[in-house]
Amino acid sequence: MTEMTDMRTVYGETLIKVGEENSNVVVVGADTTDSLKTKPFGKKFPNRFFNVGIAEANLVSIAAGLANEGKVPFASTYAIFLPGRCVDQIRNAIAYPSRNGKKGLNVKMVVSHGGLSVGADGGSHQQIEDIAIMRVIPNVNVLIPADTVAVSKLTWIISQIHGPFYMRMTRSKTPLIHSESQEFEIGKGIVLRDGSDCTIAACGITVQMALDAADSLKQEGISCRVLDMFSIKPIDSSLIEKAARETGGIVTCEEHNILAGFGSAVSEVVTETYPVPMRRIGVQDKFGESARDNEVPLLLQKHGITSINIANSVKDIRSKTR
Amino acid sequence: MSLNYYHILKRIREARKLVIRGITAAGSGHPGGSFSMAEIMGCVFFKFLRYDPKNPLWEDRDRLVLSKGHASPGLFSNLAVAGYFDKSEIETLRKFESRLQGHPDFKCPGVEFCGGSLGIGLSFSIGMALAARVDGKTHRIYTIIGDGESDEGQVWEAAMTASKYKLDNLTAFLDRNFIQQDDYTERVMPLDEELTGDDISEMWKNAARWKTGDKWRSFGWNVLEIDGHRIEQIIKAIRSVQQTKGTPSIVVARTIKGKGVEHMEDNPKWHGVAPNPKIAPIIDLELDCQFLIAPSIIAGDMTNLGNEVKRAAQGRADFIHLDVMDGLFVPNKTFDHNKIKELRPITSIPFDSHLMITDPVKHVRDYVEAGSDIITVHAEVCDESSFGEIHDILRTNEVSVGLAINPDTELPQWTDKFISDLDQLILMSVIPGKSGQKYIESSHEKTHRIVKLLTKQNFSGFIEADGGVDLSNVESCFLDGARVFVGGSAIIGQKDVRSTISEFRKKILHGRRKLLIQKAHSLGGTELVNKWIDLHEVGKKKSELLQIAKEAGFV
Prior knowledge:
Chain A folds into two domains: 4-175, Rossmann fold (3-Layer(aba) Sandwich); 190-321, Rossmann fold. Chain A contains eleven helices and 14 strands. In chain A, helix 7 (206-219) crosses helix 11. In chain A, strand 13 (250-257), helix 9 and strand 14 (278-283) form a beta-alpha-beta unit. The two termini of chain A are 37 Å apart. By secondary structure, chain A is α/β, with parallel strands linked by helices. Helices cover 38% and strands 19% of the residues of chain A. Chain B is an alpha/beta fold. Helix content of chain B is 42%, strand content 13%. Chain B has helices at 5-26, 31-36, 38-48, 72-82, 121-134, 153-164, 185-188, 200-203, 212-218, 231-243, 280-288, 305-314, 337-343, 360-369, 384-396, 416-419, 442-456, 474-480, 488-492, 497-534, 541-551, and strands at 63-66, 141-146, 170-176, 222-227, 249-254, 292-295, 320-325, 351-356, 374-378, 400-405, 424-428, 462-466, 484-487. In chain B, strands 6-13-12-11-10-9-8-7 form an eight-stranded parallel sheet. A five-stranded parallel sheet of chain B has the order 1-2-3-5-4, sandwiched between helices. In chain B, helix 1 crosses helix 3 (38-48), helix 3 (38-48) runs parallel beside helix 4 (72-82) and helix 18 packs across helix 20. Chain B is globular and about 65 Å long. The N and C termini of chain B lie far apart (51 Å). The chains are: A alpha/beta, B alpha/beta. Chain A binds chain B through residues 26, 47-48, 50, 52-53, 55, 57-58, 61-71, 73, 88-89, 91-93, 96-99, and chain B through 57, 105-106, 112-114, 116-117, 119-120, 123-135, 153-154, 157-158, 160-161, 164-165.
C-alpha cells in the first residue's frame, strides 16, 4: 500500500520554513486558516499573519497590496472561494499590475479542496472551473501538485520567483508519487514512466490513476509514457510535442471541467506542434454532488475519472490509429 | 506651517485645466469625478504627500491610491503638475501606446494602484499599510474612494479589516459628490437616505440627513466630515488624522461633481463625457476665472474683532482680510501680529494679512508666526533686496506671497523678477488708511493696464481688488481682471454677512458668464454661444445665461 500524506499539513510546515528563511513572506487567510494549516505560521510569526475573515475579495486584494510593497504573500483558502469568486480582483489587482518588466504582483494563491474530490460538501463546493479561469488570465501561473513532495518543493520554488501563482491542492490525503530527490521546475513536466505506444498526461490526483492505468496496460503489452504535468501554466510544450511525436497519441485526465481545462491546454500544444489523436478525460461539463470520503471514488467514477477509463481511452486511440 | 494656500490653489487650477486638455484630446474620459476630488488631490499632493518624481518608487514615499480609478485624469494631471512627466503628455491620454491609460496604470510613473474595477483600492491600501507596519516604516497611505464605489461590498470588507488592524497609517477620502454613472447616488443606491420624488438638489444640502459618516463610525473608523472643496478644511482634516492613533481615518468630503465648470456641476451627464473641442477653450477660460471673497474685518466692530472673524467665517468667506496699519506707513493704526495671533484659533479659514507698515522685512516673521496664510507687503516700502528676503521667509514657511501698490503707485521695475512667482497682487483702489472710502474710478483703467502687463510677465497669481469694492462695482472689478475681492463696509458693515457674500458672488458670476459668452461668440458666433448655453441643464442657469446673452446682443 502506498503511503498517504496530507498536502495541507505539508504546506503549513513548509510555509514556516520558508518564512524562517525569508522575512518578507507573509500569510493571509480568510477564516480557513485552521483548515489550510496556516495557523501555525501565525503562531510563529504573529506580525506576518493576517486573517481577514470571510471576505475573499478582500483577501486577494490585501495580498496584492502587500506584494506591491515587496512582501511575498501566500493567500490561502478553499479553491471554490478564490478563482470563481474573485476573478475580478485576481485579474485587476494581482495579474494586471506590472512594472519594471515584472509581470503581475508577487502573490501566491494556494488553495485546497480543488475538484470533485472535495466530496461531502457537494457540488456547490467542488471547484471544477479553476484551471480554466486562472489559466486565461495573463501573467498568472497555474500549478497542480500530485503529492506532498510536490507541494513542499513548489511552495519553496514559488516563494523564490516573482509572479502570481495559483496552486491547487487536494482536500484528502494523497499517495506519494515522487521521491524526495525529485526535482521540480516551473514549466517542466516530469516523466514518471517512459513508454512508446501512447502518453498519459495527468495532474493532481489523476497522476496516480495514470500510473495505475499504465501498469494495467503494460500487462496487455501496451507501453505508456506517464507525465506529471503539475505545471499547467506555463506548460511544458516541448515535452508534450516530444510525447506526441514519439508515442503517437495522448490521453489527458483531470479533476476539472473538460472545457478549457488541463486537457484543453495540452491539446492546444498538440494541435499546433505535432497533431496526434487525443482523448480528454474529465468532468463532462456538469456539476458534481456530495460523496463521503469512501464514496469519492464512486463520484469520480460517475464522471468517468478512473484509471480504467484512462486505459480504455489509450486502447481507443490505438485502435483508431492503426 | 501655514496653509500654502495659493501654492495649492494654483496647482489645483492647473490640474483642472490639464484634465480638460487631456479628456478633450482623448474624446472620452471622466471629468465629473476628476473635478469633485480636485481639491482633495491638490491638498494631498502639494501639502502632505512625500514623493520624488525622479525616483517614483522611493521606498519611504507616501502612497496615494486612487481607488475610484475612472477619475484617472484627475490623478494624471496632478502627477504632471508634480513633475513626474511633461504636461504636454496629458494629450496622449487614452491613446494607443500611451502611458496614460484610461484608468490608472503602473505604465505611468507615480501611479500606485491599477484602478478601474471599483471597490478594490481600499483593500489594496490595507495591504500597503500592513506592509509598512511589518517593516516599521512611517510613510502614510492616502486612498480616495467614490460614493458610487461604496455600493461595492468589498469596500465594507475593507472597512472592517482596517479597523481590526487599527491602521492609523491609512487615511481614506470619500469623494461624496452624490452622483454615479446612472443618476444621483441616493436614487441608485442610497448611502444616506433614499431620494424619492424630484427633490434632487435640496436633499444633500441638508447635512442632518447625511448618514454615511455614521456608517463608517460604526465600523470603528475615525470620521471627519468636511466641505471637500475648501482647502483649509481638507488640510485641517489631514492634520488631525495624522495625530490620530490606533484607528484608521476617513474624511467624508462633501463635493460637487464637475466642480469648477458651471455646466458640469451637479449634472450626472458629466460623469463620463468629454467636452466638445469647440467648447474646451471656454471651459479653460472659466477655470481661469475662479474668484474669491475676502471680507475685511476692520470695517466692523474694532472692539470685538473676534466676532467679526466669526461673522466672516459663518458668512462663507473664502478668506479673511486683515488690514494691519502701523500709524507710520498710513496715518491710522489698527492692530499688529498680536491681534492676529489672538484671532487665529477662531477659524481655519485663511488669514490674508495686508501689512500697511513701514519696514515690513523687520516684522514679517511676527506675522508668519501669528498664523497668517497670505502676507502682502507694500511695494512702496520695499526694494529688491528686502522683498527678496520677505519672499524667501514666506516661501520657507508655506505662506503665500503678496505685493500691494497704492492707487498712485505703479509697479516698480525691481518687481519684474518676482512677478511670475507672485501669488497675489493687491491693487489698492482707495488711499490706504481707513475703511469706508469710495472706490477711485481710475482704478478700473489701471487694473486693465496692469493685467495686460502681468500676462506678458507670466503672472499666475490672483489680483486682489481692495478699497471701496461693493455690489455696485464688483462685477466691473472682475471684468477688469481682479479675482479676489476685499469687502469692507460693503460686507462686514452689513447686517447679514452671509447673504451679502452670496450677493457678491452672484454679481461676479454674472460678470464671468458675460465674459464666457463673449468668448464663445468670438470663437464661434451665435451658434457656439447657444451651444454652450444649452449645456447648462441643471437649475436656472440656462435661462439666466440666455438673459445675459440677449442683453449683450449675442443671441
